[in-house]
Amino acid sequence: MDKEKIKCTISYDGSGFSGFQIQPRKRTVHGELERALKKMHKGEPIRIQASGRTDTGVHAVEQVIHFTSPFQLPEGNWKKALNTLLPNDLYIHRVEKVAMSFHARYDALAKEYRYFVLNKKEVDVFQQNYVYQFPYTLDIERIQKACSHFEGTHDFTTFSSAKSTIKGKKIRTLHKVQCIEEGEHIVFIFHGDGFLYHMVRIITGVLLDIGQGRLDPDVIPLLFEKRDRQKVGATIPSQGLYLWKVLYP
Length: 249
Hints:
Blueprint lengths: L3 E9 L16 H12 L8 E2 L8 E11 L5 H11 L4 E9 L11 E9 L13 E2 L6 H11 L1 E4 L15 E12 L2 E8 L6 H13 L8 H7 L14 E7 L2
Parallel strand pairs: 3-10, 5-6
Antiparallel strand pairs: 1-3, 1-4, 2-3, 5-9, 5-10, 7-8, 8-9
Helix pairs in contact: 3-4
């Protein structure tokens, strides 16, 4: 029987998951998707591939996955059937039939991540799973000046986790790095061709240090040269981070 390759654009609330990747005895996005597909296929395991992984507590507005199936269903039927079987913190927005050569990870041209900060002194219990609550005064102009230093192609060793399993040079290109103030919310936007482990959270932490006056905006080029994770502060929490979109040809 001919198989079809299916591409799905999904979103999820990361606060109830132990990340994307399957882990023993833990609830993950990958696990829930494959559980729904197995039920649809009457017990036959169906493997998925994603554009990339997200950590515990990280959310996705537009994550992309693919899988192959012997079923010949209209795209709308796929969407309806899978959403019926999935939990309410995981939702499939779009289903497309794609060429068998398509790969959710390897065909991605770029990704956009956004990190949301709630900049107020009082704790907001209703937002605590969806933003990083930061009670200190920030100079947004200093942050915006520093953002421009991150744009372009650089070795991001200083700004990636020491636990990263990437071998070789950690060179990536960021096409856009922005900081936007929206009332009490501050939005950090990162658009690039690839991201290292904890890279967005570490960079955002550095930008917050700059906004507090603890670092100078012009120190960023020197930090790139150092290639030393110990030269910058701690990785900030995961709940403010969103995989915003994945771009394909």
